[in-house]
Amino acid sequence: MKTMTCKQLGGACDMEFHANTFDEISDMSKQHGMEMFQKNEEAHLQAMHKMRELMHSPDSNAMQEWLKNKRAEFDALPDNV
Question: What is the spatial distance between Cα 81 and Cα 69, in angstroms, rounded to a whole number?
């Protein structure tokens, strides 16, 4: 099991997510983002805006490259003890 924070995943806080795979941790991050969106939490809304800009970047591979880098970052993390 590995740990990443909301900030490491493009978010705005230090909440930790623990998962065995990048896909699991990504889903946890998305759920957290939805909760923060519903709470209208300003710092997370700004982070979501940056992610939206990345998804709509003129460089059509920008989001895929970002995800590839985050997956590699997750894979490089040591397992929690």
Answer: 24
* 3-state secondary structure (DSSP) of residue 40: coil
Residues in CB range of 23: below 8 A, 6 or more apart: none
Domain boundaries, the chain: 2-76
Which DSSP symbol is given to 39?
A: T
Nearest of 27, 12, 41, 13 to residue 74 by alpha carbon:
27
- Please provide the DSSP assignment of 1-25 as one string: -EEEETGGGT-SS--EEEESSHHHH
Cα distances from 62 to residues 27, 32, 49, in angstroms, run 20, 23, 15
Structure-token pair, residue 43: 């710092």
Per-residue pLDDT of the chain (81 residues; tens, 9 = 90+): 999 999 999 999 999 999 999 999 999 999 999 999 999 999 999 999 999 988 888 877 888 999 999 999 999 999 986
